[in-house]
Structures
1.
Amino acid sequence: MSPDASLAVQTAVFTRLAGDPALAGLIGGRLFDRRPESRVFPHVVIGEAETLADDSATRAGQVHILTLHAWSRYRGRAEAKRILAALSAALHRQGLALTGDMACVQVLVTYSATIDDDDGVTSHGVLRLRVVTEALVPHTP
Amino acid sequence: MSGFRLAAERLAAAVEAALDAAAERLVQALPVDAGVEAAMGRRLVRLHDEQAVQREFGTAARPPDPFLVPLLAEAERELAAHVTEALHLEP
């Protein structure tokens, strides 16, 4: 069984984004790991996370698929797109420092899109992140 | 070099067959109608359901109910297995 790195990945992503000045210039400190009760826009939510086993012959590994949401009430899609660009710049092909006996192998933005919400006033940016992690200690001596 | 070209052509054909198999499996597993558009080296699976995006990513009023990630992972695994097998047969 692979050591579960999903919390370490979420923590590392949150830390990276919280310390990113370009993103802070767009959303202030409104970065959450669940939908905020106070709906102040724009904001970013680190949303759904799925973890899949990805062991190699020598090391336990995992693939983590994270979905980040950017919510904007700007008139048009520009603000949501700027936020997505800032998220991508902060994460795509940038390593993550993980806690525990795990290492980050790869971070890729695999998908992003801007969607007009049903309410007619909100723009919804989505970004899918693929993070590969592996155990520092190999299976075999 | 002709032997190399022959091997490359066989591998390319194996990749196309693997892509077809993975796309077909994905379409069958999807809970909504979908179609496949094929081009060399890629398959575009298009969902015929306007609500699918809202379900996958949520809306301001409704939380997401993602269904694509596990299905895509399964299709990816199948593709990798086919390609690995092709490489073993054509070293």
2.
Amino acid sequence: MIKNIVMMSLPIDDIAEMERWYYRDHSSEIARRYGPWLQRHESYVALNAPADAREYGFYDWRVTETYWREVPEPGPKGAYCFTPAPVWNPIVACAVPAQPTEDFFGWDGFATDRACIRWYQIFRYPLGVRLEEGEDWYLNVHVPEVMKQPGLRRFFSHKAVKPPVPLPGMWHPDATPPDELMMVQWDRVSELWYDSFSAWRNAVIDDPPAYTPPEWATDPFYPHTIDRFPFFKPGVDLVSTFLLERPSDEFLRDTRYYLP
Amino acid sequence: MVKIRELTAEEKAKPYSKYYYRPVDDPDPELMGLVGADRAMDPAQALYPEDIDRLLDPGYMEVETGWCNLPNGAGYICVNNKMPGVTVDMLDWWFAWHSLAGMHYGIWYPPGHFDITISEKDRARVLDPAVPIKEKIYGRTDHVVEDVGTGPEDIFIFFCHPAELGFDMDRFHPPNVAAVYGGYGLDMPQNAEPWQIRAPAIMCHFIREIPGGVEFRTRFWMGYTLIDRKPVMMLPYGVKVPAVAIQGLAEHNVREYTNLRNVLPEIYAELGGRIP
């Protein structure tokens, strides 16, 4: 089963119009047209993260996850075009296996323990880094060190599905989200959970474990890199947001269909 | 008049800088005719990257030089550049030596090859005399700045061992093949925003010895990448590689290898096949 992830950012001035469009038009169109193939269609509103937590390519509006039992064929296939958004906003899209491909840490807790905030990261290895080399560093060097963060509650990851999964539906040729607002080439989605933003700050900023930098962090051959945790340049190779445990919207049950 | 990058004083002081300033040879007219903008080949005659092993078969394919869009939107290029007077030893040396400096790469084709860099780790490997010359390319990543027909681009080329490209190593020997220089890459317009789309491609230069020299059978699959030794088509639904980009790369390939075939025997003899 495929989980498609769309992480979105939005200028605050556009939120009223965009929330109306998202509820009334876009989520309804997805649910109505593709409900037979969808198992879940859920959205999480991004938390109002403090300034230091926004330094990691922060996306401030929503994360929507669609779980596809089967992905319908791409193209119009009998549907109208999607109703265009009133404004186009920055979007990150990625498809992953519905279940994490690696569960690193914290599975032996109980869901009834303390609630968590989820640091939801989408990243790719920097330009010039081979996928297998990036994966070797991340899985065998970095992850064991991240697991030493004080207060880390949960840590798991999904390897991105490649080739990209073609989703159904069409935007109108004259009303297509502009390429410059979409980032689609990703390698992984990882989640790190903490008790609170204070716990996150302590684990990530105030009392982090020692990290071994990857080759790309120290060799100027690799452009657009940084030499400190998380070793992915925010906004270029890493975007992230903070979510609660439970979705704010479950569109397959919440949407009232009124479209043809 | 095509402008070329002006060399630094240090580069000019190298005795072989003369090759950089030598007039570029006219491209092979027969091949240029076959890769013209109005000469897209029939995609049914294209080789797909999943079938790359067919290059090891004796003889030639139905189309050895041409370009087209494949039905899945990918771009396909094939070019057969004959290189009289060129040997496999020269090519093995060239594919190691040219990675060491921007001017080396520029000598290949001054109007379109602007710069090259490799990582410290890869440089050490190229310079390590214990690494056989044929293996200096395997696993190396080159960052080249090159105009392949649509303006200067930053291109990262991940060179691979032929087995990673999909060749049956039991059949990988003369006369089927003499060498393969290939891998996969990502390119983006120079000075593009770093988050912009990186266009993938698989590249294969398949070398056979022929009387008096070698033939360079090149294949490009634009829109594909290599993951776990398998070609993967990465274009989103409905996206086609623009024909101008495919044809431009085909034409550039003819130009750059026409020039290389003419300069390589001389510079190889002058530098004695040594690295650096």
